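Practice problem: beta-lactamase
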Amino acid sequence: MYYCKRLTVCLFLFILVGNLAAQSRTDRKLQQKIDELVKSQNLRGVAGIYVKNLRTGKVAEYQADTIFPTASIVKVPILVGIMDKIEKGELQYHQNLEYKDSLLYAGEDILGSFKSGEKIELSKVMMLMLTMSDNTASLWLQSLAGTGARINQLLDSLGLQYTRVNSRTPGREDNRKQFGWGQTTPREMTTLMEKIYRGEVISHKASERMLRVLGRNYHDPNGISQVPPYIFVASKTGEVNQSRNETILVMAPHGAYAYTINTKNLEDQSWEPSNEGWVLCRKLAALLWQYYEPRSKWKAE
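Answer key — structure tokens:
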């Protein structure tokens, strides 16, 4: 009986210490601002947010452990798979590849306009995937990375439990039907960006390369537009009819910060700048820049 009581007390203290530690990591002022922002937008759908100040370790979150469709943000995990192959010498960053018509993914992609048999460097295919979000390039790179299952093993090794590639990955057909090409949580995707920033993915050299290529995003009218153009930003955006997503790392003067915003089940499926999901992305980005850099005189137009 004494042993049971002692075990119960120890368990209670363990939970209490854990809760106190979590509270100490929370930036309460920012947390309140994010809660108020989400509430004020009356988003007709589901949103999730996770923000981390990479200098102080302070965080703020909103439904950060909910699983969302990645849409094109899945291209960050695909990048990890390709960089692992390069690190092992199985691929070369500047090697020539031969495009085949069988690789075409119907749409408006640049790579899809190539003629069968044309040559292109692997580095340029990676650029098309990340900068232009070219789906033909992305699916080609996913196959070059091995398999979706192999990419998922890499993600698992990084401690990411829910971030997965679903499309063209045996055994994940049900996940694909629910979430599409890939799935993640705001907390996990921000964690992946932080690990890249800290040089902890594949190797320090590989992480640096990933950071550079993630800093060339053509799709910049939303979250990126709320950060001054002279500030380095690494990012990936992703959207489908019912979802708008961004994962962004900002090298702010007073300390880098990273965040992810995911949405799903959006009633507003328009493709205009006024889409509710995109409006929330822009307002969150503006809030974070102004919060972390209050003396900045720069304002988005």
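Discussion: The chain is about 40% helix and 15% strand. Students who identified this feature from the tokens alone can consider the problem solved.
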